[in-house]
C-alpha cells in the first residue's frame, strides 16, 4: 500500500488558502480606500483537516485516486456579507476574476437545504506555483450573510455532536431558528441603503482624518513645533464637534498650508545647491 504523505499533499492547498484570503481582504480594503461600499464584510479560510477528509471519503465512498478530484473543499474560503443582496455582487466579482475559474455553483439560498441551511457555494479551479511547478487545484468558496453564518456554525456543531442523528426536538428548534434567520436577513435588507450611507460616511470621515494627521505629521518636519501644536489643537477642537463640513474645510486649509511649507522647504534646498 502506498504511503500517504499528507503534509506534502496539503501544502498547495495551504498556499491557495493564504493567497485567496489576502486577495479578498485586499479587495475589501480597495473598496474602503476608494470610499465605496464593500460587499465583503469578513474573509476567512481553512484547509480541511485530515480527519474530515477521511470522514468525507468514507461517507461518499471516494477512493484515494479520486481524492483531489472529488473532495472539492480541501481548500475552503468563507466570505461573509452584511446583506443577502451582497452575495450576488461577490459572486459576480469572483466570476469576473482572471486568477480563478468557476467550475460549479451550488445555490443553497434559492434552493435551501431541508435542514434550513442557506449559503452560496462556488467550486473553483485555482492556480498555484509550487517548487515542483504550477498546480491547478480545486477550492470551495462559501458566501453567506452574518446571520446565515451564525446559524450554519451552530448547525455544524450539533451535527458533529449527534453524528447525523439529531433528536427531533433539536431539529425542530433548529428549523425554527432557520426561519428566524431568513426573516432577519429580509428585515436587514429593508434598511440596507441607510446602513450603506452611514458606513460610507464613516469611511469618508476616517479618510479625511487620516489625511489631516498625515499633513500635521509632515508639517512637523517643515515648520516649527509651536505652529504645528496650534494646528493639532485646532484639529482636535473641530473633531470633537463632529461636524463633517468643518472637518472638510479644515482639511482643505491644511492642504494649502502644508503645500506652502513644502514649496518653501524645496526653495531653501534649491538655494543651498
Structure overview:
Helix content is 63%, strand content 16%. The longest helix has 31 residues. It folds into 2 domains: 163 residues, Beta Polymerase, domain 2 (2-Layer Sandwich); 78 residues, no CATH class. The protein has a 5-stranded mixed sheet. It has 273 residues and is of the alpha+beta class.
Residues in β-strands, percent: 15-25%
Total tally of structural domains: 2
The general outline is elongated
Helix/strand structural class: alpha+beta
Q: Please name the CATH architecture of the largest domain.
A: 2-Layer Sandwich
Descriptive tags:
Beta Polymerase, domain 2, 2 domains, alpha+beta, 5-stranded mixed sheet, 5 strands, single chain, 273 residues
Write the layout of secondary structure elements.
Blueprint: H1 6-33, E1 42-47, H2 50-59, H3 67-70, E2 75-81, H4 84-96, E3 100-107, E4 120-130, E5 133-145, H5 146-162, H6 168-190, H7 192-222, H8 225-240, H9 244-272
Parallel strand pairs: 2-5
Antiparallel strand pairs: 1-2, 3-4, 4-5
Q: Summary?
A:
The protein is of the alpha+beta class. 63% of the residues lie in helices and 16% in strands. A hairpin with a 2-residue loop joins strand 4 and strand 5 (133-145).
Amino acid at each position: 500500500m502506498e504511503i500517504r504523505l499528507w503534509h506534502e499533499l496539503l501544502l498547495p492547498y495551504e498556499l491557495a488558502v493564504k493567497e485567496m484570503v489576502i486577495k479578498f481582504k485586499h479587495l475589501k480594503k480597495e473598496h474602503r480606500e476608494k470610499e465605496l461600499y464593500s460587499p465583503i464584510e469578513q474573509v476567512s479560510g481553512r484547509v480541511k483537516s485530515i480527519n474530515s477528509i477521511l470522514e468525507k471519503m468514507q461517507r461518499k465512498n471516494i477512493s484515494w485516486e479520486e481524492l483531489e478530484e472529488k473532495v472539492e473543499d480541501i481548500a475552503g474560503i468563507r466570505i461573509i456579507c452584511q446583506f443577502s443582496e451582497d452575495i450576488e455582487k461577490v459572486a459576480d466579482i469572483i466570476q469576473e476574476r482572471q486568477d480563478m475559474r468557476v467550475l460549479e455553483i451550488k445555490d443553497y439560498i434559492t434552493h435551501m437545504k431541508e435542514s434550513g441551511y442557506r449559503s452560496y457555494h462556488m467550486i473553483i479551479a485555482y492556480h498555484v506555483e509550487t517548487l515542483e511547478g504550477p498546480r491547478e487545484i480545486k477550492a470551495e468558496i462559501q458566501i453567506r450573510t452574518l446571520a446565515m453564518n451564525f446559524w450554519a456554525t451552530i448547525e455544524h456543531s450539533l451535527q458533529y455532536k449527534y453524528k447525523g442523528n439529531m433528536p427531533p426536538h433539536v431539529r425542530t428548534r433548529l428549523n425554527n431558528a432557520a426561519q428566524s434567520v431568513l426573516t432577519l436577513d429580509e428585515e436587514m435588507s429593508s434598511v440596507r441603503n441607510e446602513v450603506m450611507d452611514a458606513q460610507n460616511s464613516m469611511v469618508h470621515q476616517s479618510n479625511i482624518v487620516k489625511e489631516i494627521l498625515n499633513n500635521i505629521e509632515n508639517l512637523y518636519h517643515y515648520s516649527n513645533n509651536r505652529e504645528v501644536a496650534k494646528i493639532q489643537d485646532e484639529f482636535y477642537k473641530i473633531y470633537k464637534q463632529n461636524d463633517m463640513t468643518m472637518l472638510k474645510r479644515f482639511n482643505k486649509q491644511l492642504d494649502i498650508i502644508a503645500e506652502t511649507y513644502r514649496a518653501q522647504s524645496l526653495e531653501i534646498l534649491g538655494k543651498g545647491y
